[in-house]
Amino acid sequence: MTETTARIFAFVLGAVVGSFLNVCVSRWPQDQSVISPPSRCPGCGRPIRWHENVPILGWLRLRGRCAGCREPISAMYPLVELVVGLIWLAAVLHYGPTFTALRVAIVATVLLGIALTDAMHYVIPDGFTVFGFIWGVAAAFIGAALNETLPFAGLYDSLIGACVGAGAIAIAGWLGEVALKKEAMGFGDVTLMAVVGAALGPQRSLLTVFLGAALGAVSFLLLVYPIAWLQSRRKREAVDLPLVPFGVFLAPAAMIALFFGQAMIDWYRQDIMGL
Ligand SMILES: [Zn+2]
Predict the structure, then answer these.
(1) If you measure from the C-alpha of residue 85 to the centroid of ligand 1, how many angstroms do you get, rounded to a whole number?
(2) pLDDT at 25
(3) Ligand 1 center to residue 64 CA distance, Å?
(4) 159: Cα separation from own chain's centroid
């Protein structure tokens, strides 16, 4: 397989995976199967034909409308397919056609699915986290056997990391609950951090929790709060703060920690703590 063929293959495969990710994101929060029934238009129930289901192109050919009832089809579908295709392409561009590239692509795809579902439905489905956890542990074994570990955690760190990640977020949620006198964190965040820990190991999963909290705090101050404040002014009501799902911030934080976490930890130890 030439380099170009591998890259095209990675993009197409990623777009197909992105198409399946759309199905997971829309069906899992409603406890529906992602296998059957086949996709239908939510408006008129018309089954979606195979050629309309081709990632990105199907939506473009339909010009974003159902062929039956002309109801608009969300642009999120082709967008997710494009983004996942680009993620898989980027993984192969950076790591070559290796197991590590596949591992990076799958972890990034699962985290994207979790962030989208948490943002839209305020849940982190077990489908993503159970798959992500089993894949993370299995990939740690395969990576060790192939001698392909970085940027992921080694086998031992992967198992410890899952416990540390889940434990750290559970402790944060417990303390938050005591301080705020209401539920501060869902159990989905705990399962998400087990997935992150299995991929990143203990140190970088702790870093993920800190980065996620920082990202969340910054978005809250710069985006969520100002918007809620403006709306309350317009409606002349008290400020009504929306729920902010933590998984939306933990997922990108985990990707940052995967690629830059070790450098950040080294910098902190040497330049700040002088260790
Ligand atoms: Zn329709």
Answers:
(1) 26
(2) 94
(3) 11
(4) 20
For helices 202-219 and 155-180, what crossing angle results, to 10°? 40
How far is it, in rounded angstroms, from Cα 105 to Cα 96?
12
Q: How far is the CA of 63 from the centre of ligand 1 (A)?
A: 13
pLDDT at 225: 85
- CA 85-263-191 angle, 5° bins: 60
CB 84 within 8 A of CB 55: no
Read off φ and ψ for residue 11, nearest 5 degrees: -65, -45
Contact criterion met (CB below 8 Å) for 205 and 164: yes
Element (H, E) at 105: helix 99-121
CA of 54 to the centre of ligand 1 (A): 17
The length of the chain, given as a count of residues: 275
Of 4, 21, 5, residue with least CA distance to 83: 21
CA of 14 to the centre of ligand 1 (A): 27
pLDDT of residue 228: 86
247 torsion bin: left (phi>0), alpha (psi -120 to 50), beta (else): alpha
Residues of the chain with pLDDT under 50: none
Chain segment 65-103, per-residue pLDDT in tens:
988 888 888 899 999 999 999 999 999 999 999 999 999
How far is ligand 1, taken at its centre, from the CA of residue 62, in Å?
Answer: 11
- Cα radius of gyration (the chain): 20
The pair of three-digit structure tokens given for residue 21, joined into one six-digit string: 């990710």
CA distance 146 to 143: 5
pLDDT at 176: 84
Q: pTM to 2 decimals?
A: 0.91
3-state SS, residue 2: coil
> In this structure, how many other beta carbons lie within 10 angstroms of the beta carbon of residue 108?
22
